[in-house]
Every structure is written in C-alpha cells, then in structure tokens.
Amino acid sequence: MATSTGRDLADPSFRAGVVELCGALAYGELVGFFMIVHDAETAPRLSDRIALARLAAHELEQYERLSGRVTELGGDPETAMAPFTEGFDDWHRRTPAGSWLEGLMKVYAGHTLATDFYREISAYVDPETKALVEEVLHDTGHLDFAERTLREAISQDPAAGGRLALYGRRLIGEALSQAQRVAAERDAITNLLVDDGSGNGADLAELTQMFARITQAHTDRMEWLGLSA
Amino acid sequence: MATSTGRDLADPSFRAGVVELCGALAYGELVGFFMIVHDAETAPRLSDRIALARLAAHELEQYERLSGRVTELGGDPETAMAPFTEGFDDWHRRTPAGSWLEGLMKVYAGHTLATDFYREISAYVDPETKALVEEVLHDTGHLDFAERTLREAISQDPAAGGRLALYGRRLIGEALSQAQRVAAERDAITNLLVDDGSGNGADLAELTQMFARITQAHTDRMEWLGLSA
Where would I find the Ferritin-like domain in this sequence (chains A, B) (predicted)? Predict the structure, then answer.
C-alpha cells in the first residue's frame, strides 16, 4: 500500500516506524487516561468528576484503537510502547499539578499538544493509519468542558491566570524536551519523519519547523484562553 | 407496570424507592471506577495497568446505564446519588489499601459484594429496572483477572494471604455497617425492601437474612481464593 510520501508498509523500516509511532501515541493516550482520572478525583463538584471520568474513558478508547493498529501491523503493543514510557512518565512527574485547575490545564494542554502532533505526523504514515489518526483527531468534543472551565476561572481570577500561564509554559517546555530526547534516541520513528535520502519523509529542518509550529499553536491557544504563554 | 412484588411505578413511593436504589448503584459504580484506576496506578506490570484500566472503563459504562435509568424514571442522577456518597466514600476512606494486592482485593470484594446485592434486590424492582440490573450482573467476565492474580499471589505467599484475609474481613465489616446506616436513614429505599404492611417488599427479618446471605457468600468466596475470612 503506497503512502502519501510514496513509502510502503512492505518496507520493513517504514513499517517499524509506523508501529513505533502508533505505540507512542497509544502510550500517550494511556497516560492521558490516568492523568484525567487523577484530576477528576480533585474536582470540586460531582458533575465535574463525572465529566472528567467520561473524558478519561474516551482516552482509553483511543488507546484501544491505536494499540489495535499496532497489532494489525504485526507489532506487539507493549513492545511498541516500551521506548516511550519513560519520556511520558518523566513529563508527567516533572510537571505535577498543584491544584485542580492546573490538573485541568494539564489535561487540556496535553490533549491539544497531542492533537497538533497527530495532525503533523498524519502526512508521514500509510493511508489506513492516517485515517485512524484523523478519526482520533476529529474526536475532540470532550475538551469543551476543560476549555470552558479554564476560561471561566481565568476571567474571574487574573492571579490564578498568571500561575496557570507559567504552568502552561512549563508543560510545553518539558514536552518539547522529552520529544527531542525521543527523536534523538529512536531511529525507527525518526526515520519515519526525517528524510532518509530518498526524498521521502521530512528533513531535519522540517522537523524543527514542526516543533516550532506546535509551540506556536500552544501559545495561540493559551492566549485564546486569556493567558499570555 | 406491575412488578414481581405486585407494586407499580405509578405508585410514587415505589418509584422514589427505585430511583434511590438506582442512584445508590450508580454511585457505587462511580466509586468503583475511581478505586480501580487508583489500583491500576500501583500495578507492577504495564499489562496489569491496562487490564485494570479496562475494568474501570467498564464500571463507568455501568454507571452510565444506571444513571440513565434514573433519568428515564424522571429522577435526577446527582440528586439520586447524593444520599449515598457519604456511605460509599466513608467505606473507601476507612479501608485504605496498603498494597497493590490489597487494592486488587478491594476491587474484587467490592465488585462481588455489589453483585450479591444486585442479585438480592432485583426481586423488588420493576421489570425494566430488573432487566437492567440483571444485565449489569451478567457482565462480570472482567473480574477473572483480579481473581486469577489474587489466587496466584496467595498460593505463592501464605503470609500475604493472611494479611489479605484480615483486610477482606474489614472490607465486608465496613460495607455492612455502611449499608445498615443507609438502611436506617433512607426511607425511600428501605420501603422498597422492607414490608410496608401491604405484604409487598421484604420484611425486616428478611432484610437481616439478606445481609447474612451476602456475608456468607463473601466468606465462601474468600475460602475459594485460598483465604479463611
């Protein structure tokens, strides 16, 4: 099956890259599940707890789809996730949420960063994986709740807004540093994105541009929430 | 709509009892969701974390069905759950799990206690609610994982088994004490189960018998796991 970049799943290195990428995305969804439930437990209202529990269950469904794709491609989900557990877990550990609103910011920023990344990488994978990634992308309605709650809190309490802005900056900073570490360590996934000399994939400059676009999108989103990132 | 006990949803006190009962069950599922996720986070293997996350998501689905039934009956889920939040939360707080296996025991015992209770009360509700309760009951395949893991751990380490047996006893003791407190406080739900003089419902002696049967089932189950409860 040819891809938009002209590469084929019959090519073992391309297939290995797609498997790793799906593993990374799957583990991200799993971390999202636990992160959201954790935030739900500190939510002040029962209705917020329920809304967040639903959002978490939705992340788990996305996990199932992505890990299912790993299996379809002949990979093992746990093996495919293994190289990324440390990066995600470190990100999570290094950005502890100090309040329920920071937890919500983490859910929101984590989710939107993932969304931006999905959008960027969907060009480099096979058509079936691309369709799955786009399906996962499409399905962001659950975030309205986080967005609305954050906007309300920020408009009512500018001091809280200041702290949230700082926290938002740390979230993206730590995420980019983890992403860059992973990019440096993982050949299979990096080969997917970085030019292998055949003219396919992105080149290194394009990869840097990708990180810059993701950072810009995050900044815009923080401003839109009423924060200066 | 006539029930197996001859009572009808057109009877406001019967309807109020069914709404409260569904509220209690719904909140129990919600507590189960958070409890299981909490245990998942301390699971030693990634595969266990995933298995438990799936089990948790399943509890949330059951929550949705039960709270949906409250709405169908003209009730408000949050209002219907409110009288029971304290009892469940107290139970959870008073029985902190000291290890991953105790957490798994809590999941297992909590789930099976709920199952026994569901089975008992399904006789007292209207046919549609009964069908829903039986559907929820039927769906216990996810527990195999907890059961298998506990059996393995107990057969390998009898000392751990002794601690788990004590913990299991506390779980049921605290659950019964909360249930009895709720039964004493909540007229609507108690009227559903206790004879109101019309010959419908259970009488008080039967209610005590119900608690005794649930305790016995718990004891049998602990023995079956390799523990003396």
Answer: 14-195
Backbone CA torsion sign across A217, A218, A224, A227: negative
Tell me, what's the pLDDT at B196? 56
For the segment B51-98, what is each residue's pLDDT rounded down to a tens digit?
889 989 999 999 999 999 999 999 999 999 999 999 999 999 999 998
- Kindly provide the ipTM of the predicted complex, given to two decimals: 0.80
Q: Domain A12-224 in CATH: superfamily?
A: Ferritin, core subunit, four-helix bundle (1.20.1260.10)
Q: CB of A89 within 8 A of CB of A178?
A: no
User: Which burial class, exposed, middle or buried, applies to B122 when counting CB atoms under 10 A from its CB (0-12, 13-18, 19+)?
Assistant: middle
Q: Does B93 touch chain A (CB under 8 A)?
A: no
A34 to chain B, any CB pair closer than 8 A? The answer is: yes
In chain A, the residue whose alpha carbon lies closest to the alpha carbon of B47 is: A78
User: What pLDDT sits at residue B2?
Assistant: 43
Q: Which two tokens stand for residue B120?
A: 């008992």
A65 to chain B, any CB pair closer than 8 A? The answer is no
